[in-house]
TrEMBL record:
This is WD40 repeat domain-containing protein. WD repeats lie at residues 12-46, 96-137, 180-221, 222-263, 270-305. It comes from the Bacteria. PROSITE patterns: WD_REPEATS_1, WD_REPEATS_2, WD_REPEATS_REGION. Pfam families: WD40 (PF00400). SUPFAM superfamilies: WD40 repeat-like. CDD domains: WD40. Keywords: Repeat, WD repeat. InterPro entries: WD40/YVTN_repeat-like_dom_sf, WD40_PAC1, WD40_repeat_CS, WD40_repeat_dom_sf, WD40_rpt. It comes from Parapedobacter defluvii.
Length: 305
């Protein structure tokens, strides 16, 4: 992995305001983005171009999540609404009306028909993905719940809260397991490793914690960025993961020993983001990483070894 090669494949321009979230599409060569403007956008990675507006919105989009094995996209917005949009017909399938504050994170399971929304109101709602009826809702924190991670075996659900703590729940019945002190400032990103051995947490304190899921003890803690760690994403098959930050950089790390492999930033000679990098997504179409940020750009990176 010391020979990791990075090349900028292209820039997807069209958003008029900061982009907050990016999600892989229903087809391999498609990605969706949303942010502080009037629509969820579909991009074509084969043409490296704008494809269409999937769904118009009146409020900022903070979360996008494609339901596994379906053409259905869940959209979380500033008004507290969750919307289910059919990505082929652009039809609004359902409104998930429960939260009164912004929805910041959305995740679903592969083994059961359930969708989880987390909100600034400190609560979580769970919805049936067949009927889109509300199944459960419960309070996780007195403050914002910013991020959700589901373990690869789908036994655990972790929530990252504004109080700097990880709240760990059983994915079977949503019973509370334990609270894990993690950061001195709000948690802004969570990710389980694909092999299930680790839970990675990133925060506004610019720290990255690596927890052993055998007992959720901290294996390592370090400062990967100068400012907030907004995203942590593992590569689908290479033993690496990427982090994105408010410090305008993306960093690629070894999944085996957590060594820093490459830095993507203006300072390192890349034609990269000029403002905060808010989210990233690995896409398997051409083994690419897509990053989005406050500079209104979505950038596509070829990353190979």
């Amino acid at each position: 992995m010391n020979t990791l090669r990075i090349h900028k494949a292209g820039t997807l321009s069209g958003h008029q305001n900061p982009i907050f979230t990016v999600e892989n599409g229903a087809t391999a060569s498609t990605v969706y983005t949303g942010g502080n403007d009037k629509g969820v956008v579909e991009w074509n990675l084969e043409k490296m171009a704008f494809e269409r507006i999937i769904y118009p919105v009146q409020f900022s989009v903070y979360a996008l999540h494609l339901l596994s094995g379906t053409p259905l996209l869940a959209v979380g917005t500033r008004d507290g609404m969750g919307r289910i949009v059919h990505t082929e017909t652009r039809e609004l399938i359902a409104k998930l009306e429960h939260h009164r504050r912004p929805v910041f994170s959305i995740k679903s399971f592969k083994t059961k028909p359930e969708l989880i929304l987390a909100s600034e109101d400190g609560t979580v709602s769970v919805w049936n993905t067949h009927t889109f009826s509300l199944l459960y809702h419960f309070k996780v924190s007195d403050q914002t719940v910013r991020t959700i991670a589901i373990s690869s075996d789908e036994n655990w659900v972790a929530f990252g809260a504004k109080d700097g703590k990880v709240k760990l729940y059983s994915a079977l019945d949503y019973s509370f397991i334990e609270e894990l002190p993690a950061h001195t400032l709000p948690i802004t990103s969570l990710c389980f490793s694909p092999d299930g051995r680790y839970l990675l947490t990133g925060g506004r304190d610019a720290k990255l914690n690596i927890l052993n899921t055998a007992d959720f003890s901290i294996v390592s803690t370090f400062t990967p960025h100068l400012f907030t760690v907004y995203a942590i994403k593992y590569h689908p098959f290479l033993p690496v993961f990427a982090t994105a930050s408010r410090d305008k950089s993306i960093k690629i790390w070894s999944a085996d020993d957590f060594r820093l492999l490459r830095v993507i930033s203006l300072e390192r000679g890349f034609d990269s983001h000029r403002l905060s990098v808010n989210d990233i997504a690995w896409n398997t179409y051409k083994n690419q990483l897509i990053s989005v940020g406050d500079d209104k750009q979505a950038i596509v990176w070829d990353i190979t070894n």
